[in-house]
Amino acid sequence: KLWLSYQNYLENYYRLLKSKNEIEQKELQIATINIINQIKQGSYITINQNEELKNLLEKIYETNRRLIKHADTKTQIILEKELNDLQKSIHDINFNLKQKRETLVTNKNRELTQHRTELQRIRQAITEISSELHPDDTRQLIQKLNLLGIQWTDAERSLTVLIDSLTKRRSEYQDFENKFLRFIQWFENFLNNEINQRLNGLTIQTSLEILKNDIRNIITDKRKYANELLIQARLLQSQLTDQIQIEIIKQKIEQLEHIMDTIEQHVEKRIKKTEITCKMFNEFEQGCENIRLWMDTIETNLQRTLPTQNTNEFHIHQQSIAAIEMDIEKHSTVMSSLLALGHNLLNDTDISSRTIDSLSRRIQTLEQRWLSLNELIKKNENS
Q: From which residue to which does any coiled coil extend (predicted)?
């Protein structure tokens, strides 16, 4: 039942679309100054503004979505194709009619300009035969001619204003398109290249400072630029009568807002990640310093604790070794955590290659000293 309704909607829409298209085509072929003025004032009702067509189209979209939701894959493909074909037909007809409206205005203006000489010729003819006419007849002819001249001038003015308006609108639309395209290109380059180029090779602290200051300032400036674009887009949207263009502008507005939200979120996430990395790095640095001082103390104590033949001293030596062993055992967890932290930092993309090399050497030194310390304690145990 729903499928039959859908097909019926489609059939009615295509039939009505064809009918309205033919009507508008005829109107434009025999367009009067009144129709041209309507186009100028934006009151000319186009196919896009036809309520019957709009209502039918809404029903088609809604029914199509409902059918797709419950259809198998093959039927879904058919439904998607039908909808795409419909949208293409609407776009083609709208584009064709829009071109005809613009051509009509331009041609009418050209015709009026070309035929203005006819008015001048008639005026000259009346002047030449005025001596043979009654003064009242001459006066009436001149009055009618003057009135026609005024109407002619008004028509020319209306067409000129309309052409200027269309040209300006087209220029504004193109300007927006160019700015929008440049903004998209900047956005893609900034996320994929520029932000990394600004941070490559820097220390974590410097990267964090640049992210918080320079890059945030760039984003703030771009947010202002994007807001100006949004204002321009909404103004265009309010002035346009072409539903296709209105929809395109609407999509670009949404895209602009999404882009700015995305890039701001990306930078804030990058800042947060770099802050975490910076904290980890500082903890590693402090941990290395603490463990180095502790190792220095342990190594010194082990070197001082030399075995002797005296039983009492030997007993003291054993106690000292046991205490050092316990201390080493306690620090084994600290050492494991510190080394794990170091290895995690080695895999962090925020750390420059130069810092990675230094970090790697420090980890190796720690591991070697820890191994040497354990060997030294075993040596003392066996002594």
A: 105-132, 208-266
pTM here is 0.53
Query: What is the separation, in whole angstroms, between the first and last Cα of the chain?
Result: 96
What is the arithmetic mean of pLDDT over 164-174?
A: 69
Contacts for 340-346 with beta carbons within 8 Å, 24 or more apart? 341/280, 341/283, 341/284, 341/287, 342/284, 342/366, 344/280, 345/277, 345/280, 345/281, 345/284
What does the alpha-carbon distance between residue 205 and residue 277 come to, in Å, rounded to a whole number? 10
pLDDT digits (tens, 9 = 90+) for 180-239: 889 888 988 888 888 888 888 788 888 889 999 999 999 999 889 888 888 888 888 887
Locate all alpha helices (DSSP H) within the chain, ordered by sequence: 2-29, 33-41, 51-70, 73-129, 135-189, 195-199, 204-210, 216-239, 243-304, 311-346, 353-382
Predicted local confidence at residue 313, as pLDDT:
66
Q: Tokens 């927006």: give the residue.
A: 176
Domain extents in the chain = 2-182, 183-274, 281-382
pLDDT digits (tens, 9 = 90+) for 82-137: 888 888 888 787 777 777 766 666 666 566 566 666 666 666 666 666 666 677 77
246 within 8 A of 173, measured Cβ to Cβ: no
All residues at 6 or more sequence positions from 150 whose CB lies less than 8 Å from its CB, including other chains: none
If you search the block for the tokens 């941990």, which residue do you land on? 287
pLDDT for 51-83, tens place per residue? 888 888 888 888 888 888 888 888 888 888 888
Identify the CA nearest to 345 among candidates 292, 287, 277, 244: 277
Give the CA dihedral 159, 165, 170, 173, nearest 10 degrees: -160
| CATH entry 1.20.58.60 includes domain 281-382 | yes
